[in-house]
Design a protein that fits this description.
The complex is a heterodimer of chains A (206) and B (76). Chain A is α+β, with helices and mostly antiparallel strands and 206 residues long. Chain A has 7 helices and 6 strands, in the order βαββαββαααβαα. The longest helix of chain A is centred in the last third of the chain and has 15 residues. Chain B is mainly alpha-helical and 76 residues long. Chain B is rod-shaped, with a radius of gyration of 29 Å. The termini of chain B are far apart. Classes of the chains: A alpha+beta (206), B mainly alpha (76). The interface between A and B is large, with 41 and 35 residues.
């Protein structure tokens, strides 16, 4: 089995924030933590693009690399998880992450950060699968229930795909082939600028 | 000379004692995390796969992804 991955199809995302709401509700995420966020470029301008961003479960996770107490681990499916019992709330992972995934609740007094919280790919944590203890700390463990992450399952336009990397890639490829465009959002042109990036939408409707 | 050798041996013995008593400094986080294909015990487990069977879990996730996230499997 390939690694578990997220892909957000920027052609389809309508910034409904259904994924954000689904995640927040499913895991009863504490105040001040936004495990998933929708980022919109050129908001209000025709041709705006939105992308849903959460933890990317990196292969070489910078959060894991910088943690001074080694509270991170990666499961066999490639999901990056952490142990809140070991976490000391230093915030290094939050500084290191390029996506701003590790976050801290704002409910602490005197500026106390508390334990880091982040997207778990709905895979819970080190506690027993589906147990109350796991739910209280990390939220629902949907992977252990044979389900996909709540954000992807609740996406209204199916912009956000989650699951086995091979499967997700196949679905995305089918879409790109069908509509004739959309793959260029994830590429060199978007990151570094090219003739393709920033063109008004053309081609068949998806 | 004899006293010198005795002192050196005593210091060496202390070093050996300390070195043999050290635990390996390898942090193994998540070693007790149970794999997701083992299933959950909370009564919300989806039907159609066998908890404990990794292949069955993978197949069920693949089917779920194609049924819920890929509308081109129904409409083209």
């Amino acid at each position: 089995m390939a690694r578990m991955k997220f892909v957000c199809d920027a052609e389809r995302c309508i910034e409904c924030n259904g994924c954000v709401t689904a995640c927040k509700n499913e895991h009863e995420v504490p105040w001040g933590v936004n495990r998933r966020r929708v980022v919109t470029l050129n908001d209000g301008v025709p041709g705006e693009r939105s992308i849903s961003v959460a933890c990317m479960h990196c292969s070489d996770a910078p959060c894991m690399a910088v943690c001074p107490v080694n509270c991170f681990y990666r499961t066999d499916e490639g999901v990056v998880l952490h142990d809140k019992d070991i976490c000391i709330g230093c915030g290094y992972c939050s500084y290191a992450c390029p996506f701003g995934a590790p976050q801290f609740p704002t409910a602490g007094v005197f500026g106390v950060r508390g334990k880091m919280d982040k997207c778990t790919f709905c895979a819970g944590g080190p506690e027993a699968n589906g147990s109350q203890a796991e739910f209280e700390k990390y939220g629902r463990n949907r992977l252990a229930e044979g389900k996909l992450p709540a954000c992807a399952e609740m996406c209204s336009t199916k912009a956000l795909l989650a699951g086995d990397g091979d499967v997700v890639a196949d679905i995305f490829r089918a879409r790109v082939v069908q509509r004739g465009k959309g793959a260029e959002v994830w590429g060199w042109g978007t990151a570094y600028g090219s003739k393709q990036a920033g063109q008004p939408p053309q081609g068949a409707k998806s | 000379m004899k006293r010198f050798i005795t002192v050196i041996s005593a210091i060496a013995a202390v070093f050996v004692l300390v070195a043999c008593g050290e635990k390996p400094q390898i942090a193994k986080t998540g070693g007790n995390d149970v794999a997701p294909f083992q299933g959950a015990t909370n009564g919300f487990v989806a039907a159609g796969w066998k908890p404990g069977d990794k292949t069955s879990w993978e197949q069920s996730l693949k089917a779920r992804a194609n049924n819920t996230q890929n509308e081109y499997s129904k409409v083209r």
